[in-house]
Amino acid sequence: MVLGEDRPPVPLDFMVIGFPVGVHNFPGMLAAELASLIENGVITVVDLLILETDRDGEVHVQEMEDLDAVRELEHVRMATTDVVPRDDIGYLVANMESGMSAGVLVWENTWAIPLGVGLRRAGCRIISGSRIS
Q1: Does a structural domain hold residue 133?
Q2: What is the C-alpha separation between 27 and 72, in angstroms, rounded?
Q3: Which of 12, 53, 70, 127 has the fewest CB atoms found within 10 Å of its own CB?
Q4: Which residue has the higher pLDDT, 127 or 9?
Q5: Are the C-beta atoms of 117 and 6 separated by less than 8 Å?
Q6: What is the pTM of this model?
Q7: Secondary structure letter of residue 75 according to DSSP
Q8: Is residue 2's pLDDT more than 60?
């Protein structure tokens, strides 16, 4: 199916994942699961950051292109677009302890694109929706 101008906008989701002490990158098993979701067309990652807070509370940000340790994701084509505004980094690290690391993952649910195209072609539209955690 070619998704041209019929392609509906797909909402973005995000999560901040706290890593175990001493881990400063997506752990291998987590990276492999993420790669599987991408390869199977379930999601498309649009931004990926690693945040680290040091003992002084200073925040260090690594972009996807800086993450050479994410070997499981090297072969995955990612359309990263820097959607996380740098002004929001303080909000994202608010619940992190000093010395902690976390990954920020922003994705679109690629699986929903064909459903959205079908809805649009049928003259329907999504009126509301929400995520239940």
Answers
A1: no
A2: 10
A3: 127
A4: 127
A5: yes
A6: 0.76
A7: T
A8: no
| Mean pLDDT (the chain, rounded) | 79
- The strand pairing partners of 13, in sequence order, are 107
Compute the distance between CA of residue 14 and CA of residue 28 in angstroms, rounded to an integer.
20
In a domain, 84, yes or no: yes
pLDDT score recorded for residue 74? 63
pLDDT for residue 49 is more than 60: yes
Q: Provide the CA 29 distance to its chain's centre, in angstroms.
A: 16
Contact 73, 35 (CB under 8 A): yes
**Taking the CB of residue 108, how many other CB atoms lie within 10 A of it?**
17
Alpha helices, DSSP H only, in the chain? 28-39, 89-92, 112-121
Q: Which residue has the tokens 């359309």?
A: 79
Question: What is the span of the domain harbouring residue 70?
Answer: 13-118
pLDDT of amino acid 123: 92
Look at the chain and report how many structural domains it folds into.
1
Evaluate whether residue 5 is within a structural domain: no
